[in-house]
Amino acid sequence: MKQTTNAIVMIRPVAFRMNEQTAVNNYYQKVLDGLLPSTVNAKAQQEFDTFVEKLRAVGVDVTVIEDSLETDTPDSIFPNNWVSFHENGDVALYPMFAENRRHERREDILDTLEDKGFQIANIMDYTSAEEDGIFLEGTGSLLLDRANGKAYCALSPRADEELFIEFCEDFDYAPVIFEAYQTVDGERKLIYHTNVMMCLGETFAVICADCIDDKKERKMVLENLKADKKEVILITEAQVNNFAGNMLEVRGTNDKKYIVMSASAHQSLTAKQIAQLENHAEILSSSLDTIEACGGGSARCMMAEVFLPKS
What NCBIfam families does the database record attribute to this sequence (predicted)? Predict the structure, then answer.
């Protein structure tokens, strides 16, 4: 199994704003005072377009889908939470915590990929769990080490343990389960998505071990990464707050590897961390300040990787 892909799907926003339904447990979101919603959306579109240009310039195959105004989907820019695409032709659809995020799931996006020659064999639909108030938000909640057959999940209101285990059984992954915390107003609160504090590359892992308060769990997670011969690059909670955990390794022209992150994530890294990452791949960063502030997500959340076979 490949860990990285050249093909990604990205959704261009039309009504991006801070989603009041996700802010209840995404403590990274902020209200940008004094900015009209149209201004916020225009800034997000500008950041999005520049980011796509940078990815395409190095040969990443980006399928851009325009969001629709018909649905009130302020977070549509983060498609990796509702869908994942797998090498055997499976597509997984995930149950979403925020009701207005459930409208992001669009069949026409799958049709577009099929029109491009990607083959979809089977759809694994977990969305009925929403009726029971059970959620698992795609590759935000679960980090797939596709090559080593492991899936990492920090449990939270958006990542249910039983459903995660069911996913692992369906897709043949060994589950690695833990809890990750951040400090909010002096209190330790669960981090809403695993991919905020951790990134899995082919030969490296970026992780904020300090977020895993339970020492046994922390040791277990780090031992799993080291057992798979990944160089573990530790980041701090302050760096997590700058979205340094929210990176993704992708492939460009001639299969060249890139580690994609936001400008704020890049700027938060130390020279040593940058050197460690550059041993594995070239860094590609782009300014996503508006998207990060209002959306509480960053570069990795914006990219849904496509591993489907091509005809």
Answer: citrull_CtlX
Q: State pLDDT tens for residues 68-127.
A: 877 778 788 999 999 999 999 999 999 999 888 998 999 999 999 999 999 999 999 999
In this structure, the dihedral spanned by the alpha carbons of residues 295, 163, 71 and 298, taken in order and rounded to 10 degrees, is 20
265 closest CA partner among 252, 275, 274, 276 = 274
Measuring CA to CA, how many Å separate 231 from each of 146, 186, 197, 239?
17, 32, 16, 18
Contact assessment for residue 127 and residue 105, using Cβ atoms and an 8 Å cutoff: yes
How many whole angstroms separate alpha carbon 74 and alpha carbon 19? 6
Q: Is the pTM of this model over 0.90?
A: yes
CA torsion angle 163 207 193 47 (round to 10): -140
State the average pLDDT over residues 232-245: 96
Q: DSSP secondary structure string, 114-176?
A: HHTTB---EEEE-GGGGGGT--B-HHHHEEEETTTTEEEEE-BTTB-HHHHHHHHHHHT-EEE
